[in-house]
Amino acid sequence: MSLKELGKSVTEQFAKAYGRPPQWLAAAPGRVNVIGEHTDYNDGFVFPMAIDRYTVIAAAPSAGGSKTAQLRSTVGDSPALIDLTQPLKPSKKGTWYNYPLGVIAGFVARGITPGGFDALIHSTVPLGGGLSSSAALEVSTATMLEAITGKTLDPVEKALLCQKAEHEYAGMPCGIMDQFISVMGKKDHILLLDCRSRKTELVPMTDSSVALLITNTNVKHELTGGEYAKRRAQCEEAAKILGVPSLRDADVEKLERARGKMDPVVYRRARHVISEIERTVHAAEGVRASNWPTVGQLMYASHSSLRDDYEVSCPELDAVVDIALSLGPKGGVYGCRMTGGGFGGCTVALVQAGQVAAISDRIASEYEKRTKIKPTLFVSRPAAGATVLS
Questions:
Q1: Is 178 in the active site?
Q2: Which residues fall within 8 angstroms of residue 164, CB to CB, at 6 or more apart?
Q3: Residues 42 and 107 occupy one common structural domain
Q4: Are 104 and 246 within one domain?
Q5: Using CB atoms within 10 A as the burial measure, which of 86, 281, 374, 383 is most buried?
Q6: Parent domain of 38
Q7: How far apart, in whole angstroms, are the C-alpha atoms of residue 350 and residue 140?
Q8: Mean pLDDT of the chain
Q9: Long-range CB contacts (within 8 A, 24+) of 199-203
Q10: Which is catalytic among the residues 40, 43, 52, 178?
Q11: What is the pTM of this model?
């Protein structure tokens, strides 16, 4: 469904839910990270693109001039009623509306108060697959509030407001990538983001002969012992041993010289981050030059490093990458890797657009044969970022 059709459908659903048409309609996309995993908290580069899966919010002023924000979701969660005359505080952890609530609080803290409104939220971004459904919800809320209040935020400020909402209201210590790409994505472009300086560059990907195929493994391994926090600590330890502010400031030579002073696991974690930052910069150059075989090889190298050095892959992710590798360029696949935090979720493959159907069928049937799990696949070109539809 195109974004226009999606907007029309949500408009109709709003009218059914509230008995009147919406006045505002805003949308923001999910994302897939093409390359650059676990580099964000090491001050490195990431290379995400917006996907054509969106969270759309329809809204209208509250009936009877009430100062309450009513949030409803089409997935049938209980509606949220937010009294805008009272100080805003997070609801209990795990409550779905903490994400939009945190964004509303960010606007109110800036003296931008929307007044009462009724809203209906609908999303086509897969939940829990590592495609940033939470950032899409935050950014679509912020975009809707801009439409309601007539106050447009600077894009960086808007992305950081949404990130803060996720930290303080949803209790998720995310990096800046997801909100930045959801705000700043551009059709036929991938975003090269420097996580240290927050400098962004939109890299054109106008060659319509290629697309990105996303495979949701439909597994999420629950891990004990705070794996994410553990790896962050290992990266910090490596940087300390290397005498640098962060792993962004190290190179492979420096790491090799210090190898004897490091625990072998800490060394491997650092080797992944340092090499991944380098791969991400080279991949952006490859996309600029439409050099798809090179970009594909960098994606495979990224996956191997995430599997072996960073140890955040899992058998299901490895299976998809293995099937992609067996298809190869002759079968229309240039490269494939896990994307997102790891231990399940999705892979992303760079494929020939004309062979998407055949590649999808092959990956789906082979993966199910190996794992007894049905995957979910969809293809996307780089999509547009947040927008007000009406």
A1: yes
A2: 102, 106
A3: yes
A4: no
A5: 383
A6: 3-205+384-388
A7: 28
A8: 96
A9: 201/284, 203/47, 203/284, 203/287, 203/288
A10: 178
A11: 0.94
